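Q: Hi! First time asking for a complex rather than a single chain. Here are the components, and I think there are two in total. Is that enough to go on?
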Amino acid sequence: MSLAFNEEQRSLKDTARDFARDNTPVEALRQLRDTQDELGYSKEHWAQMVELGFGGVIFPEAYSGFDFGVKGLAGCMEEFGRTLTVSPLLSSVALSGSLILEAGNEAQKSKWLPAIAMGEKLVSVALEETSRHNPQATALSAEKVADGYKLNGKKTLVIDGHVADLLLVVARTSGQAGEQDGISLFLVDPEAQGVDVQRTVLTDSRNYARLELSDVVVAQDALLGEEGQGFAPLDKALDVARICLAAEMFGSIQEAFERTVEYFKERKQFGVLIGTFQALQHRAAHMYTEVQVCKTILMDALNALESGADNAPALVSGAKAKISEVAELVSNEAVQLHGGIGVTDELDIGLFLKRARLSQILLGDERFHYQRYATLSGF
Amino acid sequence: MSDSKAFRQEIRAWLEENCPESMRSKAKPEEQVWGGRNIQFPSEDARVWFERCVEKGYCVPDWPKEYGGAGFDQKQTRIFQQEMTRLNCRPPQVNLGIWMAGPAILEFGTEEQKREHLPKIARGEIRWCQGYSEPGAGSDLAGLQCKAESDGDEYVINGSKIWTSYADHSDWIYCLVRTDSDAPKHNGITFLLFDMASEGVEAKPIELITGETHFCQTFFDNVRVPKKNALGEENKGWTVAKRVLEFERDMMSDMESTAVNSGQSPRSIGQKFLGDEDGRVTDEVFRHAIAKHEVQRRGLEMSQQRMIDEYMQGIGDPRIAMIFKYVGTEEEKSKYELMVKMAGEHSLGWGEGYTENEIQMTKDWMGAKTHSIAGGTSEIQLNIIAKRALGLPEK
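A: Yes, that's all I need. Here is the structure of the assembled complex.
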């Protein structure tokens, strides 16, 4: 499999680039932030994105998808990362869609996947419980009761949770926090009794929520996949989302880096362009090498994932870890190398810094993922 | 069956038939065949393997047949190399002629020069060394002062070169000399080829921190060289020199995969010294560092493939090639630092009490320090990236 996008994938990526340039430039994020938009994303833009087919890229044709593969979606995510485009693509399509595809029965798939692909419904995964990503530490309890389950516990950092039409709640039906066995997945209606969804506002002006479940009773058919066996499909779906997020981060990294290099060619100090200073040239050149390595690592992981290679999970972790490190490097350097204007709200670079840090910790930071890589690689 | 499939089968069959079993592993330093007038073979198998490859032109598979190569095109050469790697075949000979002098002569040489030098390189008859750096000209290579004065049909050379690898075992040198002291420094350099057996040439080995002595300082005292030995035009040697530096950079970025070393990796060292019975590295900080090393290493290696794949898709970007030497040699240094931290005294042994393999690790750690200096320091590589990949302005 090629480490370069093919013509079809490039054409889809170009569509994403043109859409983002014309409709969701960084200014669109500012507007959502400054108007304290209730939804936190633009329904209009999302409808346009669905119209262009981005909602169905990874789904099979049977579920209103285009069966274009995760590589196709990742190319789009990269372009949306360049403009910090806000959309439910990561939460509803890449993560929730993949999870339903992996774990769902036929009825669940045919009900939810076309609705996600067509943008009619938004679905969010409620996973995190602590400050650090750690799926197997899930503790939220799901107790077997007559005709169903009773859920109790809290979730945090639920991406797009406040606008979700359906929550996929990761819960524990048996065993101890820290064990992979005993994790189960449930479809929960956010309107159901005992469900409290609280929007949280974070520095990247994207959308997250906290969730509190108090004696929430769901029916037996709310179970997604097998009881106690939720970890495996969850991990698979997370990998799709992790690589899509890494692709988005890679787009943001490139944008912040390129803007910095351009600034080197405009800004004068001591009577000369600052780009002539070797101390600065070397920092930019080092970042260039890191960006290039990231690109390879991203493509390598995408290929492994798409071909179902045994080492795909390890390579996805490698990619999320490496790209998280480089996101930190480049976002910090971009601010520093812009000098005073770099810490103003007026300049977009600050928005890239904020998004970089959030996306670094989302779905596992470099520490989580290097450890996971090691576990999966047998050391 | 496609042509390339048939070609692959032909190569595979030939290698399986002709590469002796003992030649199917990485060669230790003393097992390498360097070629030259005093060619030496560490074993009978090495001789047989060398002779069979020479006969087919396989020491330089991509060179034209008339110059001693196999005449393979780019695709065939890649298949050939893949098949060599598949069987883990050693290169039949290693030599600066194959890596640098030969490709430069192919690109810039006259027909006469090609016919004189290339077949001898292909057949391992002449061993080359490189006369680039001088005591006063390291990173500022173009500031070189070794002088070649015109005297009729000859140049008379005076001065010295440093870091001339294996100069004391080499037969010919490709050497940068100053033929015009008044011109701007890049415009007064000539790329000259001459015989190390010439009167007035002396090579003295330099001992490195690793204990190795393959680098030399080489002195020229009124050495007379025919003017027709210039590669390219007089005073235009810098163009040739830069091209050769690119060959060198490409070769050195690949050093890690071809290098002869202790055969240890951060993972194997981590498991040996810090692993539990299941092979899990118990120290989380080292575990993180090993993973980080492996991800970066693979990223670097796959970047070569990405470059090719992008060209195949018509979206190739030549700038990627500029990262390899810097990323490769810097990564190699951090890899050995990591191994030293985990193995402790077992990777710093230098004599009694330590195995040969442990001492090799010590040498590898120090040897890596030379790689980010030789062939253009990391800082020079960053200069090149800043200027040519990013288009940053010069003062």
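A: Chain B has a mean pLDDT of 94. Let me know if you'd like any chain examined more closely.
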